[in-house]
Design brief:
- By secondary structure, the protein is an alpha/beta fold.
- The protein is built from ten helices and eleven strands.
- A six-stranded parallel beta sheet has the order 2-1-3-4-5-11, with helices on both faces. A five-stranded mixed beta sheet has the order 7-8-6-9-10.
- Helix 3 packs parallel to helix 4 and helix 5 packs parallel to helix 8.
- The radius of gyration is 19 Å and the shape is globular.
């Protein structure tokens, strides 16, 4: 439940203690607007020495969550947490889902949208550039096509076992390969940790959705210092001239080899965390 008292810090619970989770915890502790309600990690022992004992959440039951009285729960783990606990998160607080690839699963998507009848389900824009403008076009149904291309070093791609993982392992030094080029929905379960940007695009472009927004994943051994995200937006055609509205952007995010998340995305998540409030029920970009 959102805080109503003036000058009360917004209470944030963090789910996950990877690099991004640790970054967000530090940001909350340094903020004059936020305070930690709790931290949860699948392996509780790794929290000790980093988080005070009273902030460690023992389990993700609705009762345990409610006792901590969070205003916002930020989940930066795996889509399985959203599937198992997302509805409970929404029953007690606003919920920022750090793995929006979970919403490519129609069952999970419906459950969370249905659960967001009191509190908001917030989707961080992360590495996705221009999300609010694209959402506005989708609202007016002037968005006709959207394609997101992500290029990363093979070691930065954490792929589920299968054909894509095998092909990624075979990319030779100095070369690149397109691992996937098609509807975003078909990629989310194959690379759930890598293509959250594409999932966010599909959510913003709601008139197209996961089946019509196109995603292209490129494995490139030359990407030793960067993650690259390219967004191509197609709008309406002018009836008089035949000219087509088109916008393309290219975002180069500094990233070390092996990093799943680029460095600039960490700061973007903090901004999303700060802005995930006040919009009420439903699904919102932040």
């Amino acid at each position: 439940m959102a805080s109503t008292e003036k000058n009360t810090k917004r209470r944030v619970g963090i789910i996950g203690f990877g690099k991004l989770g640790q970054y967000l915890i530090n940001a909350v502790q340094e903020s004059d607007q936020l305070e930690l309600a709790f931290v949860w990690c699948r392996r509780e022992e790794v929290l000790r020495g980093h988080v005070t004992e009273e902030l460690i959440l023992k389990d993700l039951s609705k009762e345990s969550l409610s006792e901590r009285n969070p205003d916002l729960i930020v989940d930066v783990t795996h889509k399985s947490i959203a599937e198992l606990h997302g509805a409970d998160f929404l029953s007690v607080a606003d919920y920022m889902i750090g793995c929006p690839t979970a919403l490519a699963d129609e069952k999970i998507d419906k459950e969370l949208r249905d659960a967001a009848h009191k509190n908001g389900l917030y989707v961080p824009t992360g590495a996705f550039w221009g999300g609010n403008d694209i959402q506005k076009m989708a609202d007016r149904n002037t968005l006709k096509a959207l394609k997101v291309t992500m290029t990363k070093h093979p070691d930065s791609l954490k792929l589920v076992d299968g054909e894509l993982k095998e092909r990624n392992a075979q990319v030779k030094e100095g070369e690149s390969e397109v691992l996937y080029d098609g509807p975003v929905r078909g990629l989310c379960d194959k690379a759930p940790n890598n293509v959250n940007t594409m999932a966010t695009a599909a959510i913003a472009a709601h008139n197209l959705g996961f089946d019509k927004v196109q995603g292209c994943l490129v494995s490139d051994t030359r990407m030793k210092n960067w993650h690259i995200v390219e967004v191509e937006v197609t709008g309406p055609t002018d009836s008089k001239t035949g000219n087509v509205f088109h916008v393309s952007t290219k975002r180069k995010n500094p990233a070390e080899i092996g990093a799943v998340t680029g460095k600039a995305t960490y700061a973007s998540f903090v901004s999303s965390m700060m802005g995930a409030k006040g919009l009420g029920a439903g699904v919102h970009l932040c």
